Amino acid sequence: MPRILREHLTELRERIPFECIVFGWPDAENETSRELQREIRRVADSLRTIWALDLVFWNEAFSSVAASERLRLAPQKVRREKGRIDQLAAQILLQEFLDAGCPFDTPWPFPESETES
Description:
By secondary structure, the protein is mainly alpha-helical. It has helices spanning 3-15, 31-50, 63-72, 76-79, 84-99, 112-115, and strands spanning 20-25, 54-59.
């Protein structure tokens, strides 16, 4: 896990004692998505060695599409803000997780067939 991410999460956890991290889990449609899945697993494995946290892997399918659709209705100034789609997609993903009742039964590790090819 990158040092800067570990430091940021450590500082955040000191201010807000969180016990769960929700990861967006991309569909393994192509090699780019599969590589992203492998990186997410590496970060999650690193976090498991540092803290006793619940790690949840939530399907992020269509969250970027939904974010893009919502931003089309926003004022042009908002639409042009860098990272706005990713920020809104993360909010949508977390809201879906909350709306589902915060299920912590997502299997880990995922079957190798989903992440390795």
